[in-house]
Amino acid sequence: MTSGKVSVLDIKGLTKTYGAVTAVDNVDLHIDHGEILGLIGPNGSGKSTFFDCSTGLATPDSGSVSLEGSDITNWSLNRIAREGRMLRSFQKTVVFKKLDVEENLVIAGQMFTFPSVLSTFSVGKRSRMRIEGLRKHARELIELTGLGPVAHMAAGNLSGGQQKLIQFASMLMPDPRLIMLDEPMAGINPKLVERVIDTIRYANREMGVSFLIIEHNIDVVTSLCSRAIVLDQGRKLCEGTPAEVIANKQVREAYLGG
Amino acid sequence: MNNTPLSTTASDPKRRNLRAPIVIALAVVALGAPMVLGTYAVHAMVIALIFLLPAHGLNLLVGYTGMLSLAQAAFFGLGAYASALMSIHLGTSFPVNMLAAIALACVIAVPLGIPALRLRDTSFVMCTLGFVIIGQAISKNWISVTRGDMGLNNIDKPTVGLAGYSWTASNPVEAYYLALVLAAFATWVFWLVVRSPAGRNLVAIRENETLAESLGIPTWNYRLAAFVIAAGFGGAGGSLYVHYISVASPLMFQTLYTTTMLIIVLGGGAGSITGVIFGSFLFVALSEGLRIAPELRMIAYGLSLLILVFRFPQGFAPFLMRIWDWAGGVDKKEGSA
Amino acid sequence: MADNITLSLRDVRSGYAALDIINGVSLDIPQGEFVALMGPNGAGKSTLLKTIFGMTTFKGGEINWQGRQIGGLATRAVLGSGISYVPQGRCNFPLMTVQENLEMAAYTIRDPQVKADRDYIYELFPSLLKRRATLAGNMSGGEQQLLEVAMAVLQRPKMLLVDEPSVGLSPAAVGIVFDELLRLRDTGLTILLVEQNTRKAMEVADRAVILRLGEVIWDGKPADITHDELGELFLTGKMRAELAHNEKLSQ
Amino acid sequence: QDADIKIGLVSPNSGANARYGSFAQRGAALAAKEINEAGGIDGRMIEIFPADSVCTPVEGVSATQRLINQNEVDFIIGDICSSVTLAMQPLVEDAKVVLVNAASSNPQITYQAGVGGYKYSFRNYPTDEVRALSIAKYAAEKGLTKLAVLSVDSDYGRGAIDFTKKYIDDLGVTLVSEDYYKEGEVDFRSVLTKVRKSDAQAILMYGLADTTPIIARQMIEAGLAGKLPLLGNGEFSAAATIEAAPKAMDGAIEAAAWLPAYDSEGSKAFVAAYEAAYDGEEPNNHAYGHWETLHLLAQAIDDADSIDADAVVAALEAISFESPMGTITFDDHHQAIRPLLLLEIEDNAPVVTGSVTGAVTYADN
Amino acid sequence: MYFLLEQILNGVSSGAVYAIVAVGMTMIFGVMRAINFAHGEYYMIGTFGGWYATSALGLPYPAAILFGVAVTIVIAYVIGKFVMQRMIGAPVEASVVATLGVSLVLQNTAILIFGGSYKFFSAGYIEPVFFGDVGIAQQRLLIILVCILVFLGLELMVGFTRMGKTIRAVSQNIEACEVVGIDVKKVVMTTFILGTALAGFSGILTAPVNVSVYGGMGEIITFKTLPIIVMGGLGNVRGTLAAAMILGIAESLVAGHFGLQYRDSVGFITLILMLLWRPHGLFSSRARF
Ligand SMILES: Nc1ncnc2c1ncn2[C@@H]1O[C@H](COP(=O)(O)OP(=O)(O)OP(=O)(O)O)[C@@H](O)[C@H]1O
Ligand SMILES: Nc1ncnc2c1ncn2[C@@H]1O[C@H](COP(=O)(O)OP(=O)(O)OP(=O)(O)O)[C@@H](O)[C@H]1O
Ligand SMILES: CC(C)C[C@H](N)C(=O)O
Ligand SMILES: [Mg+2]
Ligand SMILES: [Mg+2]
C-alpha cells in the first residue's frame, strides 16, 4: 500500500467469528515505522477482538499477521511480546494485584532483559545488576506517571486510574518496537492524560516506538494520531487522518452520535 | 523473605534491633534441641524436617506459582520407593539414592506435567490428585517390584560416607542432625529459586497468568519448571523419609500425607519460607502433642485447623512478618494482610 | 438550601482496614441535584461512593440519608433504602446472559412493572437488545459498561451513585447515557456522579465537587470554574484558600 | 511397693480401621482389669497406654516412639495392621522393648524375628501361611475345586492367596478369577455378577470383618446367596455378620484364630466378662487376641520375675501358656504355635469342624 | 451380552448415587468457589441417622430416611453458621483448610459417639428382581428413580426459579450480588444445606445395598465425587449427572472385566483423559479474558 518500506505490522484479511457474531470481518491494517495509528469505532465493533487476534490471545479464523515482514500469525501471546517486542495492554484493567507498583514494572521488563528462561534462575551478580537496572528504569516511569506516592503499595489496592497507569508504564519497561494500547486514557484524569500523551509522543520520537491506540476520547486521537481507522460491526468503515475520519458522515452517525 | 515486597518502612534507630539475637537464638535452639528433648520429641522434629522438603516444593507451586498441586505426595512416594528399591536391590548408599530419587521425580514430572499443566484451578487439582491415586494403584498392583501391600521394609538407615569414613544416622538424634542439614540446604536452594528473577515470574503467573503472558513471560515453561522442581523436593523428602522410617508401603500415597503437606503450607502461609518452616513444626507438633487424648486427637486437630483459619486466614506468615518487623524496630503503618 | 437536603455527609472518615482514605468529608446534596465528583486519580472518589454504599470500613462522622443515619450500615440496607450504585470497573454476572443480568438487577423488586422497565432499557440501549442472549462476560467493554448502568437504573433508586459511567463508551453512547441521567434527574432522582471526563461532567452537572487526598477542596457551580483551573486544582490542590473563602460566603 | 507395669498398646483408633483398634483396646483393658483385680503381677499393677497408629507406618512409628520415650512403657502390644508392625519391629529392637503382636498375620513378621533377626519381637497370632493351606485342603476335601477369589487388597488378603497358590496344584483346586478389593470398598456388584456368570463353586475370601456382611448382602442382591459358599477368613462367624445376611452366610467356611462360640470354659468366661463390661457387645477375635496376649505377657513377666526385657524374652521363649484355646508356645522365630479353628456356618450358627496347629516350616523362606 | 447389560445397569445404579452426592457438592462449589472436602461426611451423617433410626429407634425405612435427612440438616446448619458463612470471600486456601478441619471433626466425632466399628444397615429392599437373566435389587431401582426425580427437580430449580438464579449469581460475582441486593450469606447457607441434605439423603438411600455404616465412610465418597464434579463442569447440574453416569458405568465395566483392584483408579484416569480432551470440563462456559 505504502511506498516500498516494510510496515512494522501488516495484517491482512483478519476475521474472527463467535457463533453468529462476526466480531472482526476481513480487516486489513498496517502500521508504518514510527507511526501512531488510531483505531476507533462504536462499542462492540471488534476493536479489542482485533487486538486479541493480532497478539496471540485469540486465534483468528483467517487472515495473516506479519511483524517486520515475518509471519507471526500463530505465535503465542508471550512469544509475540518477547520475540516480536510487540506489546499490548488490556481494556479491562489488569495488574499483579498483590505486588507493589515497582515490582509490577520490574516484571514487565524482565523477559526482555534476560536472554532465556534458564538465565532467569540465576541469582548471580550479573542477574542482580540486570534487576537493579530494571528497578531504576521502573522508578523513572513511576515518577513520570505520577505514581510516586504509591510506588510501594500493592497494585490491587490502588484506584482504577492508578492501575490503568501501571498498565501503561509496563508497556514502556522493555524497549518495544510496537505498543498496542486498548483505551489507555479511560479513567485517567485530564491533567495526567496530557502527560500520557507527552510520554507516548516522546517514546514515539526518541525511542522509535510505533503505536496502535484504541481510544474513545476523540481529542486524544486527533492530537496524537497521524492516521485513524474506523471499525464498525467488525468491518473497516473508513481510514484517513483524524480530521478526515471525523468529517466522514457515516462515522458521525455510527460513532460520534451526530 | 515474604514474596510480597515490603512497603518502604523506616526503622526507628532508637529502638534496639532484635533481629540478630532472634536468629542466633533460633539457631542455638535448632542445634541444641536434641540435647534437652526426649527421643520422642526429637523424632517428631525429624518428621517435621522431613515434611519440610515436600512442603517447600508444594509452596513453590501453591504459594508462588498459584497452582494447587496434590501430586507432591505422589513424588514423595515415588522418591521413597525409588530409594528403597535401590537400597534393597543395588545396595547403594543414602546420598546416591537420594540423588536418584530427586532425578527420577524430576524426570517423571515432565510427562505428567505436560498434560496436567493444560489445566487450571480445580481441574488441575483433581488431575494431580489423580496422580496420587494412580501412584497408589501402581504401588499396590505392581507386586513383583513393590511387593504390593506388604511394602518394602528393613531399609538401611541413612549413611553418609566419604572415602572409607562413614557415618550412619541410626537413632533419632543423629537423624535429626542429618535432616537438619538437608532441610537447611533445601531451604537455601528454595530461597535461591524464589529470589531469582524466575521466582518473580512465578509470582506474576500466580497473580495473573494472561497478563504475565502478555509481558513476554512464557508461562507454560515456568509452570513446568516449577512443577519439576517441586517434584524434586518431593522426591528428596520421600527418600529421606524412607531411610529414616525404614518402611515403604502403598499407604505413602494415602490422603493423610497429602493433607499433612497441604496443611503445613496453607496453614503456615503459602508464599512464605518462614511460614512453611513454622508450619511444618507447628502441625507436626500439634498432631503429636494431641496424642495425650487419643480419642479426641483428630477432633482437636480438626478444631485447631478451624481456629487457625478464622484467626489466621492467610496462615502464620503475616503474623511472623509482624514479629520480624517488630524485632527490627520497624513500625508498619498499613496493614498488608 | 436547607430543607430539601436528601443526603448529608458530616465529617465522614473511612478507608480500608487500617488505612484512612476519606479524611473528613462534609457534603449536602439536595434532592434532585446532579452532582459531579471529580479529582485526580487516587483522590478517594470511588472510596467516598463506596463509603456511602457501605462497602468500606466506616470510621466516623455522619451520613444522613432522608433523615436516617446510614453511615456504617451494610450494603443491603443501604440499597434497601433507595440508593443504587454503579461501581467502577467490571461488575456484572459474566456467565449470565444480558437478559438474566437485567433480571438479577431487579432482584429486590417484585412487581409486574419490572418487565416494562426492562423493555424501556432495551429501547434506550438497542445494542443491549441485540445482545440479550449473549453472555455478559463475552460482550465488549463498552457494552458491559452500558449494561451496568442499565442494571442500576432498573433498581428504581431514589439516589444513584455512578462511578465513571463513560469509561469505555463511544462518544455516541456517552451522549445517550448522560441524556438518560439528566432525564432521571428531572424525574427527581438525586445523582452523585464520579467522572474523569470532566468536560462532559461539567456540561451536565448542576454542581461540581472536587476531591483531593480524601478531602473536598472545591465545591461550586461548574460555571464558576474554568477547565484550566480545574486541571490546576487536580495537580496542586491550590485554591484551597478560595474554597475556605467560598464557605465563609455561604454561611 | 513397686511402680506399675506400663504396657503400650498400638492400634488404629481413627481412620478406616478404627473398628479393630476399639476391639483391641477393649480386650486388653479387660485383661488388665482382671489381672489388677487379682492382685496384679507380684503386686504390681498393669497400666495400659493406648496409642493410635491410624494403620499407617509413619503414625505407627510416631506412636511407638512416644510410648517408648515419653511414656517409657515396659512392653508393647501391637499393631493390628501388618505394615505398621513391620515398621515397629526395628524400633523396638533398638530400644530393647519387647513387642508382642496379637493380630498381624503377615508371615514376614516372624520370618525376621527370633533367630530370623529381631530378638524382641513376638507374635501370638496364626500366620496367613497356615491359614491358606488349611482352607485350601478343606475346600478340596469338600469337592469345591473351582474357586473365585475375592480378597482384600492388602498383605493379608494377597498374602493368603499367594500361599494358597503354593498349595492348590497338589490339591487339584483351581482359581477361576482373582479380584482384590480395597479396604473400605462397599460396591461388589460387578464382581459378584461376574462370579455368577463363571463356573466357580465357591468364593475364596480373605477379607476384613467389616466387609463380609456387605459382600454377603450383595450376594443376596446378585442372586448368589445359598448357591456359592464363602470360604476363607473374615469374621464369618460373628453374630452381626450372620444376622446381616443369613441366606448368604449359610454354609460359609472359615479358618479363624478364635470365635465367640468357641466351646471352652475359658473362652465362654471371656465372652461373658466382655459382654458384661461393654454393654453386651459381642467380642471379635481381635478383642480376644489382645485379651489373651496380655494375659500371656503377664505370665511371662511373672515367670521372669522381672520386667527386664531380656529376662522376659527368655520367659516368652520358654513359655507354655494355658489359654482357652489350648497350650501356647513360641518357636525359635518367636511365632506362637497355636491352633487355628476350622468352622462352618450351619443354621445361622458357627460349628467348629476341626482345628489345625499352626507350625510354620521356615525351610523354603 | 446380558452380562454387559447387567454391568451397565450396575453402573447406572452406582452412578445415580454418585450423581446425587456430587450434585450437592458441585452446587456448594458454585457458591463458595471452594472444594468442600467434608462433603462425604454429610453422606456419613445421613447414613448414621438412618441407621440409628432403624436399629435404635426401630423406625421403618421410609421414616428413617426423613430422620436421617433431618439430622443432616441440623448439623449442616450449625457448620454453615459457624464455618461456611465465614468462608465467603475468603481465599481458596482457607476454605481448603477449613473443610478439611470440618471433615476431621465430623468423622471423628462420629467415631467417638458410636465407636470405630462398622455398623450394619439391614433395612431396605435388597431382594433382586430378574428381567430375564438380568437381576437387580429393588433398592437399586429405587435409587435410580430417585436420582431421576432429584435431577428433574434441580434442573427446574436452577434454570427457572429465583433461587436457582441467585445460586448462579453468587457463583459468578459476589460484589455484583451485593450491588443488586442479593443476600449472599443466605444463599450460601441455603445452597449448603440443600447440597448436604442431598448427600445425607443419598447416604440413607444407599445404606441398604452398601450395608456398612462407619465414621470413615465419607472420605471415600468425597474422593469418588471429586473427579465427577470436575468432569461435569463445576457448578453444572446436568454435567454432573452425565459425569456420574459415565464414571459409574466405566467403573462397573472395569471391575467386571479387569478386576476390582483397578476400579478406584478409573475415576481419575477417565478424568485425566477427559480433561486432556476438554480442559474445561464436559459442559462449562468461560467468559473471555
Ligand atoms: N468470546 C466471545 N464470545 C462471544 N462474543 C464475543 C466474544 N468476544 C467478543 N465477542 C463479540 O464481539 C464483538 C466485538 O467485541 P470487542 O470487544 O472487540 O468490541 P470493541 O470494539 O472493543 O468494543 P468496545 O469499544 O466496547 O470495547 C462484541 O459484540 C462481542 O459481543
Ligand atoms: N481495596 C483497597 N485497599 C486499600 N487501599 C485502597 C483500596 N482501594 C483504594 N485504595 C486506596 O485509596 C485511595 C483512593 O482510591 P479511590 O479508588 O477512591 O480513588 P479514585 O479517586 O476513585 O481514583 P480513580 O479516579 O483513579 O478511580 C487510593 O490511594 C488507593 O490506593
Ligand atoms: C485385621 C486383620 C485383617 C489384619 C491382618 N491380619 C493384617 O495383618 O493386617
Ligand atoms: Mg474493546
Ligand atoms: Mg475511582
TrEMBL record, chain A:
InterPro entries: AAA+_ATPase, ABC_AA/LPS_Transport, ABC_transporter-like_ATP-bd, ABC_transporter-like_CS, BCA_ABC_TP_C, P-loop_NTPase. Residues 9-258 form the ABC transporter domain. It comes from the Bacteria. GO terms for cellular component: plasma membrane. Keywords: ATP-binding, Nucleotide-binding, Transport. GO terms for molecular function: ATP binding; ATP hydrolysis activity. Pfam families: ABC_tran, BCA_ABC_TP_C. This is High-affinity branched-chain amino acid transport ATP-binding protein LivF. It comes from Aquimixticola soesokkakensis.
From TrEMBL, chain B:
It comes from the Bacteria. It is a multi-pass membrane protein. It holds the Pfam family BPD_transp_2. Keywords: Cell membrane, Membrane, Transmembrane, Transmembrane helix. GO terms for molecular function: branched-chain amino acid transmembrane transporter activity. CDD domains: TM_PBP1_LivM_like (cd06581). GO terms for cellular component: plasma membrane. InterPro entries: ABC_transp_permease (IPR001851), LivM-like (IPR043428). The chain crosses the membrane at residues 20-53, 60-82, 94-117, 124-143, 175-194, 224-244, 256-286, 298-316. It is found in: Cell membrane. This is Leucine/isoleucine/valine transporter permease subunit. It comes from Aquimixticola soesokkakensis.
UniProtKB/TrEMBL annotation, chain C:
Residues 7-238 form the ABC transporter domain. It comes from the Bacteria. The keyword Transport applies. The keyword Nucleotide-binding applies. Pfam families: ABC_tran (PF00005). GO terms for molecular function: ATP binding; ATP hydrolysis activity; branched-chain amino acid transmembrane transporter activity. Keywords: Amino-acid transport, ATP-binding, Nucleotide-binding, Transport. GO terms for biological process: L-amino acid transport. SUPFAM superfamilies: P-loop containing nucleoside triphosphate hydrolases. Belongs to the ABC transporter superfamily. This is High-affinity branched-chain amino acid transport ATP-binding protein LivF. It comes from Aquimixticola soesokkakensis.
From TrEMBL, chain E:
The lineage of its organism: Bacteria, Pseudomonadati, Pseudomonadota, Alphaproteobacteria, Rhodobacterales. It is found in: Cell membrane. Signal peptide: none annotated. One of its GO terms (biological process) is amino acid transport. This is High-affinity branched-chain amino acid transport system permease protein LivH. Coiled coil: none annotated. The chain crosses the membrane at residues 15-35, 65-84, 96-121, 141-160, 187-207, 266-283. Belongs to the binding-protein-dependent transport system permease family. LivHM subfamily. Pfam families: BPD_transp_2 (PF02653).
